[in-house]
Fold:
Amino acid sequence: MVRYNLGTMLQRCFLSLYLLAGLLGAGEKPALEITSPLGTKFYSKPDEKGVVAAAEQALAADPKNVKLFLKLSQAQNSIQQIKEAVETCTRALGIEPDNAEVLTERGHRELPLRQFARARDDLKRAAKLDPTISDAYYHLGLANYFLGDFGPAADAFCHGATLAKDQDSMVNFTNWCYAASRRAGRKEEAEQALAKVGPEMQSNSGHTVFYFNLVRFFQGRMTEAEIAPPPPTPGDDESELIFDTVGYGIGNWHLYNGERDKAIEYFRRIAKGHVWYTWGFIGSETELAHPIATSKRNWELPRP
Structure:
């Protein structure tokens, strides 16, 4: 007969309960995250790999550790539990109200919830508390951009480019600095921004390729046909991310060059997708939901 001591039995009991909780979590129905301005409902994904459960367990063992709150927020975001990620950041700010990193994280996550004004407030505060956080300026630029405040958006993106620590970040900032400056009617400043990406520069692998090609398109070094991505593969989030990112950049270019119909065609194609948290998707949806001629929108979805 095999004998177990009490400690071993308790360990196995707790392990079984933990695994069962993970299985139950994986089987839960996705939660409604937002109903978009176009009336589409978007949901989170189940925690099939247990990333959120593991982050919650780590935080429970050290409940005052703000770094663990950030890890939980990022885990929640990975399965599009974005409302939950915002709530996690709010809990962290209850511990450290002036933590610029947490304010940046919350502002970042408020953007996909279309809480643009709240995101702007958080990100402005983060940048004031720590002017070296480039991510605060990047997402502050997006918050202003989605609100239609293109001048302040351009200011944030162009300043953020001076804080970029690597080529990838600098190219991303340059793409948005150019787009926001053009939307703000600051064409000369937009052209100056493009000069940061010289003809000798080569693209890196990864997502920067999307923005790198867009910058080359803005510079006239690549054509629309050369950078336009193929239609996304159904169910493949990565191919849709590429399509949304590049498609929005091209559509936006047509918009500020007076080709409104071509712009709307791109925006409509993007808004038919399901990757609702990409900047290209949000930008397209925003343009379709509100008059394109309006330079300042002053709107956002009600906070859940």
Summary: The beta strands are 32-35, 41-43. The longest strand covers residues 32-35.
